[in-house]
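Backbone description:
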Amino acid sequence: MSRKKIPSKQALIEALREADGNQASVARKFNCHRSLVWQYVDNDPELRALTDELTEVFIDEAESQLYKHIREGNIVATIFFLKTKARHRGYSERLELIPLRRQDIEVELGAAISDTTDQTEALDGNGAAIALLGQ
């Protein structure tokens, strides 16, 4: 692609609206590198706000489609929704540890020694064993 300038801020705004905020699509329209579009958007608070709003609107549309498919009985859409929005009810494929309250933990690191049984002892600052670690 040849390096081109974007015609005007207004042209960029119109292109962003047409492309639902997709900056790569806008770059293709203006036959320029997408980093140029990103640079324009990042350096202009109005353009950044516009792309953020357009992205949120598109996310809303995608969620509406997801809800439609769930209501139609699409099991994949239903499972996806539960795994992403209902994790707090246990719909997850991984175990997540969520602290009940914030608590600072203080750890003092010391030396570690190995013995002939393939066990390692963690020592505190005074040389006393505080843990036995398997290798």
Q: What stands out?
A: Strands lie at 112-114, 119-123, 129-134. The helical segments are 9-18, 23-29, 34-42, 45-71, 75-85. The chain has two domains: 9-89, 108-135. The CA atoms of residues 72 and 134 lie 53 Å apart.
